[in-house]
């Protein structure tokens, strides 16, 4: 149990964050070492008020199409890392990707998120650009988000010109030593951060984010993440608990802390009131009502799966991922019902950052 003085101090820091939209690194460390469940509730209440003031009791939906689980990288935490020979690899055809979007459009999705491993050999920037042009032609009122990992500037320019609106690239950790413990030597912290800067500079609505409770993560690492997010000011932040995958070096590591994940969501909302903040699938995996609690802690986006049911189980970044058996129509209705139960409505719109 933390003493009363310490509780009060964390609340005071939350108040300061609300007023000044930033804390120092030392203050963030204090928050992450001293917080209690009571502080989390305090932050969630503020975050919910802010979210409702900006977005109303509305939640944006984005349909995710996971079009390839082939990846050239070997991140230690990821179930589709290249050295996992148990992964059952697949690639959707261009027609299959388009038909997922067509189907999604009928269910009211106005944003499509095309996501894959770093599969640049099969899905060159030129090929993805053509897919995006075709989606935009068929559905001019929709936004397209890409989440394809790190790309060079030329590729990002090409894709922007093809009409891509948003790009998600979780930074995963803003602490260089921590980054080294999560990734093999041939991956570069500097390259990832540079890539994020380029994405933002080119005018994409830019998404960063990190796992909560990834192996070796400390209060210092989380403080670095919050300082980074506060200065980079992404338009979207993807945050979910770390969940281990059985075919990775981190298979025996404990799951990330559910309450801490909710707390960080609330802190992000308080720091960046207009940020687009998903209640992630990982949050719904760690707890059956995790996404609802995410929304009640300040999240305002849900990203149901539009991938064909036959491939969903193959896009297994972590064990136990939910919604792998459902049809897209079921996911859509399920999300709507879940939001209704907590007094929120699903909004049919692109849901741009404003
Ligand atoms: S986290 Fe992304 S880049 Fe790393 S192995 Fe998985 S899919 Fe590839």
Question: How would you briefly describe this protein structure?
Answer:
With 354 residues, this protein is α/β, with parallel strands linked by helices. The protein has 14 helices and nine strands.
Account of the 3D structure:
The protein is an alpha/beta fold. It has a single domain, classed as TIM Barrel (Alpha-Beta Barrel). The chain is built from 14 helices and nine strands. The chain has helices at 4-20, 25-34, 37-55, 94-106, 125-138, 153-161, 176-182, 189-201, 219-232, 258-271, 281-286, 290-296, 309-312, 328-341; strands at 58-61, 63-68, 111-116, 143-147, 166-168, 205-212, 236-241, 301-302, 345-347. The strands form two sheets. Strands 2-3-4-5-6-7 form a six-stranded parallel β-sheet. The model is unreliable at 1-7 (pLDDT under 50). It binds iron/sulfur cluster (SF4). Iron/sulfur cluster binds at residues 71, 73, 75, 78, 80-81, 117-118, 149.
Topology:
Layout (H helix, E strand, L loop, with lengths): L3 H17 L4 H10 L2 H19 L2 E4 L1 E6 L25 H13 L4 E6 L8 H14 L4 E5 L5 H9 L4 E3 L7 H7 L6 H13 L3 E8 L6 H14 L3 E6 L16 H14 L9 H6 L3 H7 L4 E2 L6 H4 L15 H14 L3 E3 L7
Parallel strand pairs: 1-8, 1-9, 2-3, 3-4, 4-5, 5-6, 6-7
Bound molecules: iron/sulfur cluster.
């Amino acid at each position: 149990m933390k003493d009363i003085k310490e509780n009060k101090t964390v609340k005071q820091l939350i108040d300061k964050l609300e007023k000044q939209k930033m804390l120092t690194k030392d203050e963030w460390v204090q928050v992450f070492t001293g917080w209690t469940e009571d502080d989390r509730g305090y932050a969630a209440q503020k975050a919910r008020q802010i979210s409702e003031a900006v977005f109303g009791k509305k939640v944006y939906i984005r349909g995710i199409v996971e079009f390839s689980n082939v990846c050239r990288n070997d991140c230690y935490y990821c179930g589709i890392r290249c050295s996992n020979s148990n992964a059952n690899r697949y690639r959707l055809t261009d027609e299959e990707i388009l038909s997922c979007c067509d189907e999604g459009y009928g269910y009211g999705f106005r944003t499509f998120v095309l996501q894959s491993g770093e599969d640049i050999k099969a899905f060159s920037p030129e090929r993805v650009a053509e897919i995006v042009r075709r989606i935009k032609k068929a559905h001019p009122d929709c936004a397209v988000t890409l989440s394809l990992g790190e790309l060079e500037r030329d590729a990002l320019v090409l894709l922007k010109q093809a009409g891509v609106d948003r790009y998600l690239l979780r930074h995963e950790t803003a602490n260089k030593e921590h980054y080294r413990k999560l990734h093999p030597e041939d991956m570069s912290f500097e390259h990832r951060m540079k890539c994020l800067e380029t994405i933002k500079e080119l005018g994409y609505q830019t998404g960063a984010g990190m796992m909560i409770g990834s192996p070796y993560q400390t209060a210092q690492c989380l403080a670095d993440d919050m300082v980074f997010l506060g200065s980079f000011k992404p338009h979207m932040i993807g945050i979910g608990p770390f969940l281990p995958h059985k075919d990775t070096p981190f298979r025996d590591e404990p799951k990330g802390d559910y309450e801490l994940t909710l707390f960080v969501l609330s802190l992000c909302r308080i720091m960046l009131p207009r940020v687009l903040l998903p209640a992630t699938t990982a949050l719904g995996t760690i707890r059956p009502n995790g996404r609802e609690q995410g929304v009640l802690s300040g999240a305002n986006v849900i990203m149901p799966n539009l991938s064909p049911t036959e491939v969903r189980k193959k896009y297994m970044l972590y064990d136990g991922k939910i919604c792998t058996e459902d049809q897209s129509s079921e996911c859509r209705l399920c999300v709507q019902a879940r939001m209704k139960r907590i007094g929120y409505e699903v909004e049919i719109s692109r849901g741009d950052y404003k």
